Amino acid sequence: MDLQTRALHEGYTKDSQGTMAVPIYMTTAYEFRDAEHAANLFALKELGNIYTRLNNPTTDVFEKRFASLEGGEAALATSSGMSAIFYAIANAAECGDNIICARQLYGGSLTLTAHTLKRFGIEARFFDVQNPKSIEALIDDKTKVIFFESLTNPSIDVADIEAITTIANKHGILSVVDNTVATPVLCRPLEHGADVTVHSASKYTTGQGLAIGGILVERKGLLEKLRGNVRYAHFNEPDHSYHGLVYVDVPLPPFTLRARLSLLRDLGAVSSPFNSWLFIQGMETLSLRIKEHSANALALAEFLESHPKVIKVNYPGLKSNANYANAQKYFENGACSGLLSFEVQNLEAAIKIVDATKLYSLVVNIGDSKSIITHPASTTHQQLTETELIACGVPSGLIRISCGLESAKDLIADMKQALEA
What we know:
This protein has 2 domains: 3-274, Aspartate Aminotransferase, domain 2; 287-419, Aspartate Aminotransferase, domain 1, CATH 3.90.1150.10. By secondary structure, it is an alpha/beta fold. The mean pLDDT is 95. It is 37% helix and 14% strand. Helix 5 links the parallel strand 2 (98-102) and strand 3. The N and C termini lie far apart (50 Å). The longest helix is centred in the C-terminal third of the chain and has 33 residues, at 273-305.
């Protein structure tokens, strides 16, 4: 089935009531048939519902449906995009290990990888996403993850996914791709060699800024990469916290299984059933909305590129953009999502423009049906030094726009008056 059809039907078999809409199973726990049934569930001899911190029927539909859109084998829903990223890394790395990350990351991801994980004994090493060849010099026998974004936020670079994943596979290292901005409608990194994708479902998936949530997706066949891989002994040796279970010996997708039984069980950053239901509703129109977001962003980018006060426009749908070739290679029909950024002369000019807009809302979010304007250097990336801001593609004069679903004509008119105010 095509992606749009799967977005409407995948993962849901109508219940005894024949409900067309996926029900919201707002429950903490589930009754077992008897003691043997309970024991079998905990021993994985039978699969079923145990406790909503581990699984839930509504969330199960969300996970199966999203995994299908990404072309993956299994997914794990979490309470936020950041928890999905943390679980993806913590599922692979431990104290004494290192991860290799693109410098061009969302501000929260930079803080997590460079600072928070450091307190767990995991070192982050950084590379320029435009120079994948620099990755190999950073790799050693303790490297467990290569982490990057398919479409970076807010520098709006398009990663050469195949170049990066080829290096990861050469060294038997897991590659994790944040595919939030592109969404599986435009880009499916698992089809280009990536092992795991992560998303903030709070963005385009819900589409209206309604709920916080995240999800990670495991590619088909990842078991063979993990089996016998000395970098990932914890997948090949007994897990004494779960009856001596060896994850590569279970006929279930191993990466999401371990993340569920170890991390979700112990840390509890689980998706609410109601939030999972909201994400399911958003997925039904995701492919339609992304087309409109992308069309609006391209129209605005073309206007900005022609304005004398704009120094640079970052949008890979523009033929003049350095990322155009990668966008044509990796993105469906060359559409590039609703996110763009542009540079003006300095901090003062950027703040003036942000404050002068009327239709755009000053919000630190993306992917909403309403258009959003953000000044990253003073908000999402405020914790970085001036040198670090430049390194990750966020100069002080950069403004980020998340184009909503308003008329492109109105979006351009409001930006024109703000630039000329």
